[in-house]
Write a structure and sequence with these properties.
By secondary structure, this protein is an alpha/beta fold. 47% of the residues lie in helices and 15% in strands. Strands 9, 10, 11, 12, 13, 14 and 15 form a 7-stranded mixed beta sheet that branches. It has a 6-stranded parallel beta sheet with strand order 3-2-6-7-1-8, sandwiched between helices. Strand 6 (240-243), helix 13 and strand 7 (267-271) form a beta-alpha-beta unit. Helix 2 (17-24) crosses helix 3 and helix 20 runs antiparallel to helix 21. It comes from Pontibacillus yanchengensis. This is AAA family ATPase.
Length: 731
């Protein structure tokens, strides 16, 4: 009985021909391209078993590396389930980080160098305590906080801290240095300068080196490059190296693996270039696309059979990912039975989307595993609100309650607190620059010295004020009084519009480079939560309830059929039913993806396409794509990706033809007043498209066939080049 027959008898695993070829290919470099649901972890474990049982390779000569601790544990557990009783040998399953730390510790001890890890979990009490005086707590968060303040003369916001951390991790994982640091797109002021100061602080701190998690990788790479003794030791030990989820590896991680694999290059890289979605963490799909250049005599195999999804989902996903140019050509297929076609639902409003998802989940069978996917964690908050009110339990993959601590949320609560008691100078001090009263720091200092028995507004009005300010302060006093009597949703809208909070946020974004889209998204979410609540106190209490719900949802993993997760965190998971939400331009793909695409920087848009593909391929037999036309009062446009999918699943309507030729007297010709973001149009030369940009002079249109074009509005109108999409009929 050969190896595969024995494995089928022992484990029930029956490999297909490509999987078998991958298992027995043990000598030389192999890139195994594994489509979603193609059984890559099973194949990888069978390959390890083959090395042990057939090739008689010692377990300590095999290194199996994967991206995360969870994946390493999963591989180890599956190996034990397959081969318990067949071998006592234990293979080294590891993340690259843990291996790198092992190398770094060995080198530091060899050189009698003391070190301290400065990254890890930090409690809320420690965050609040912060630091006083010249001594900085030796934690990455506090070090960067102090360096930001020293460099920019201002306190760092939570958003800036997150972005600064991401920037530092990115440049280290991409091995960027010198002038390249300035070229990386980042919204944090003087980020490159702060990075230099951070590295100097770590490397010249008394008698020990300070290390963060990314230093494990960069130090390991340089140690292997420069210490021949350590490199040779690990090259001799690990004769066979297998890496899983390699599309997620950063540039420095790929370099470490390349060094270890020499000189034999008995390396098996399991990856899917179509699922490379962590560019912001330093991964680079180019490493996979250049595999055959990096390794001489490399073999590339493709595992294209999908064992997870229905024919409709596989076929649609396979066609969709082909919009990307930089990828290995492959045709994913399945022998699974047919099910429902991919559903596209376009609703009037964001609120309608929330209601629809909630009702669909209520109607679904209790034996179904369901996932709701979204682009950003903050998108989950109003959904959690709706699910809780409907009595639907859920498990949240990413426990991220930072939303409730965000300064925008705190601002809104402070406005409401101040409406209860406008004698509170301490609250006014936090919000006085964010509404239309033009209260200065000097006036705040003046108020602090005064008794607190009367309204701060009355105190100011009794003092000497510029004439213009008297009017605004009188108006603000009345508005705060009104807010106290309003329902929360109306109160938030009044704060945003009548008190001028939205304008203040816009000014801050322009001045400090904050992400306006993100901040206004938080405000929209607060309005969604506030809808239907009767009092301002009820709104504050509801926020606390939702925060607790999200934090405790991790205990529902085995109890709930419903998982809420971001697109990124959904990778590697699968569900019976999947709802992909918020599929509007500016969210999926993001505004930044679209802006960079217009500037002919195509990488981010290709990654956004891969992220959408990952979402689609999580579904076993039911997939729905959900979009809407309005978020609050703002008109939004259906995602270009949804339009791509519609062309695949509804080819007749997508391949509509135009009857007749337009002429200047045709009533359907587009005039200046007809043009609006999101409108579908037909161009005489470029065909069907949707307006993405319109500024009076230029019109930007995303055409289904010709791609994005920017056209002169006057020329289009004068020459009758554009007409309304109601001219489109099925041909």
């Amino acid at each position: 009985m050969d190896f595969f027959e024995r494995m089928e008898e022992k484990t029930g695993v029956c490999l297909n021909d490509v999987q078998k070829q991958a298992v027995v290919h043990t000598e030389g470099p192999l890139l195994l391209l594994a489509s979603p649901g193609s059984g890559k972890t099973t194949t990888l474990n069978m390959k390890i078993g083959y090395l042990l049982l057939e090739k008689k390779v010692r377990a300590d000569q095999i290194m199996a590396v994967t991206f995360s601790k969870a994946s390493a544990q999963d591989m180890s557990d599956r190996f034990d389930s397959f081969f318990s009783g067949l071998t006592e040998d234990k293979v080294y399953f590891s993340t690259i980080h843990s291996f790198a730390f092992k190398v770094v510790r060995e080198w530091l001890r060899k050189n009698r160098q003391d070190f301290l890890i400065i990254e890890g979990n930090i409690s809320e009490e420690e965050l609040k305590k912060g630091f006083n005086g010249p001594d900085i707590p030796l934690h990455k968060h506090f070090i960067l906080k102090k360096l930001f303040e020293d460099t920019n003369g201002a306190q760092i916001s939570d958003d800036d801290m997150d972005e600064l951390m991401t920037y530092i991790s990115y440049v280290k994982n991409r091995m960027i240095s010198g002038k390249g640091l300035e070229k990386v797109q980042v919204n944090v002021k003087n980020a490159a300068s702060i990075f230099h100061s951070y590295e100097q602080f770590k490397n010249h701190h008394e008698d020990r080196i300070l290390l963060d998690f990314d230093d494990m990788l960069t130090y390991c790479y340089h140690i292997l490059l420069e210490d021949e003794e350590i490199l040779s030791k690990y090259q001799r030990q690990f004769e066979y190296i297998l890496t899983d989820e390699s599309q997620d590896n950063s540039v420095v991680q790929h370099k470490i693996v390349e060094l270890l694999a020499k000189p034999h290059n008995n390396l098996c890289v399991v990856a899917d270039d179509d699922q490379s979605i962590f560019m912001w963490r330093g991964s680079d799909v180019k490493n996979l696309l250049q595999f055959e250049k990096t390794f001489a005599n490399a073999t590339v195999m493709t595992m294209s059979q999908n064992y997870r999804s229905s024919q409709e989902i596989v076929n649609t996903s396979n066609q969709f990912i082909k919009r990307n140019q930089n990828r290995y050509p492959k045709e994913m297929f399945t022998e699974n039975p047919s099910a429902n076609s991919v559903q596209i639902k376009s609703m009037r409003s964001y609120e309608d989307q929330l209601k629809y998802v909630t009702e669909e989940i209520k109607r679904s069978g209790w034996d179904e595993e369901i996932a709701v996917l979204y682009r950003n964690n903050s998108s989950a908050v109003p959904l959690v609100d709706k699910l809780d009110k409907a009595g639907i339990p859920f498990y949240m993959k990413d426990i991220d309650a930072k939303f409730f601590k965000h300064w925008i949320v705190e601002d809104m609560l402070n406005f409401m607190r101040f409406s209860y008691n406008d004698r509170r100078v301490d609250i006014l001090e936090r919000i006085h620059t964010k509404f239309n009263a033009y209260i200065s720091k000097q006036q705040i200092a003046f108020l602090k010295k005064k008794p607190t028995h009367t309204s701060v507004f009355d105190t100011l009005l009794d003092s000497e004020l510029p004439s213009y300010q008297q009017k605004y302060i009188t108006k603000a006093k009345q508005q705060f009084k009104n807010i106290n009597q309003m329902e929360p949703a109306k109160a938030i809208r009044t704060i945003r519009e009548k008190l001028g909070y939205d304008r203040a946020i816009t000014n801050m974004c322009e001045k400090y480079g904050f992400n306006a889209e993100h901040l206004f998204g938080i405000l929209d979410t607060l309005e969604e939560i506030a809808e239907g609540l009767g009092s301002l106190k009820g709104f504050a209490d509801r926020l606390k309830e939702l925060e607790k719900l999200i934090q405790t949802s991790k205990y529902n993993k085995s109890k709930s059929k419903l998982t809420l997760t971001t697109f990124h965190s959904a990778k590697g998971l699968e569900f019976d039913r999947v709802y992909m939400t918020d599929l509007v331009d500016g969210v999926v793909p993001s505004k930044d993806d679209m802006d960079r695409y217009r500037n002919k920087e195509y990488g981010p848009m290709e990654e956004a396409t891969r992220l959408f593909y990952v979402g689609m391929t999580r579904a076993r037999n039911h997939l729905e794509l959900l979009s809407y036309n309005y978020k609050g009062n703002e008109r939004v446009t259906e995602s270009i990706f949804v339009q791509n999918v519609r062309k695949i699943v509804q080819p007749k309507s997508a391949n509509a033809s135009v009857k007749g030729t337009p002429h200047s007297s045709d009533a359907s010709l587009m005039q200046m007043d007809d043009m609006d973001i999101g409108e579908e149009v037909v161009h005489k030369k470029f065909g069907i498209g949707a307006i993405k940009v319109f500024n009076g002079e230029l019109i930007g249109i995303e055409f289904e066939e010709a791609g994005y074009k920017e056209l002169n509005v006057g020329i289009c109108v004068e020459n009758g080049l554009l007409w309304k999409s109601d001219k489109v009929t099925e041909g």
